[in-house]
Recover the amino acids of this structure.
């Protein structure tokens, strides 16, 4: 059941819709709301991404001939089996 205020609001929207040109297409209030929601979602996603990227601790590998020596040194202890 609709209340009196919602019925009054709907009648105002219907009269506004009749006064516009039928051949002109506009996004209207719904288009603005959808655009604002998408913009807010993008803002929240970027904020979350920045927070997660700040947590990443990453060290670049050295350039040139040093890259081979660090890889070999890191792989050597892992290759030795443990005996007990």
């Amino acid at each position: 059941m609709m209340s009196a205020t919602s019925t009054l609001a709907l009648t105002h929207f219907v009269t506004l819709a009749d006064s516009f040109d039928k051949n002109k297409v506009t996004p209207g209030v719904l288009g603005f709301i959808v655009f604002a929601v998408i913009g807010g979602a993008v803002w929240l996603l970027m904020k979350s991404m920045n927070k997660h990227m700040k947590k990443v601790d990453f060290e670049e590998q050295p350039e040139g001939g040093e890259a081979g020596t660090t890889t070999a040194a890191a792989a050597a202890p892992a290759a030795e089996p443990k005996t007990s």
In short: The mean pLDDT is 76. The CA atoms of residues 3 and 9 lie 10 Å apart. The radius of gyration is 31 Å.
